[in-house]
Write a structure and sequence with these properties.
Layout lengths: L2 E3 L6 E4 L2 H10 L7 E5 L4 E10 L4 E10 L8 E6 L4 H13 L3 E6 L10 H18 L6 E7 H11 L4 E5 L6 E2 L10 E5 L7 H9 L3 E4 L7 H19 L1
Parallel strand pairs: 1-3, 6-7, 6-11, 7-8, 9-11, 9-12, 10-12
Antiparallel strand pairs: 2-5, 3-4, 4-5
Amino acid sequence: MARFYCDSIIEGQVQLEPDQSHHLANVLRLEPGQPVVLFDGKGTLAQAVITDIKRKAVMLEVEDIRTEPARMAGRVVIAVSIAKGQRFDWVITKCTELGVDHIAAVAFERTVKLAKGPSILDRYNKLALAATKQCGRVFLPKITGPCDLSEILLSLKKDYPEAHLVFGTLNPDAKRICKLPTSDEDIIAFVGPEGGLTGEEESLLKAAGARKVQLTDTTLRIETAAFAFAAILCANRDAAE
């Protein structure tokens, strides 16, 4: 059954936003009387029936509402260096599909400098919404940044005070990521730029309690490392539930 985002799900009649209305009416070509699923990205799901299709608005009758509780532990956070163009779009999309709870865009010292500001964050949120809609997630991931490492550390330590922190490295002395035990505790994984972390950044992470871990014996691109962390950590989290 087709799923659509609706910011405010209430009993009775609701109206879809223009972009969701366009997708329903002009892309999927659904018709009045057909059932759909609504989600608000905050845990609420509803069964609804299309009642009216206008040029820029679709009306639906909500028939059944249920709410899932937000995860308060076992959250997976990927704090990842910004990458050029579509490569960071893939980070947002695939980490959303894999079940990451929070994607934090980081501007490390060796990160390629890219545009900042509300417009770039709006873009990332739209990509996450599209991926959430497609993959069947109930909750939208939180997306923050871009900020430098010190700002991100302060923010994440405040939001996830009991979280375990790890960062990727090729150092052979580092613990293999797949040997980390399954856990229902929050975990934050830092993915540096392809030029690597500076000595100062690595010291900053270690001072914050982060452990170095090794994904593979090979040098990975930013998006590949982010996907690997996301897949392994979300699988570990889900196995512990």
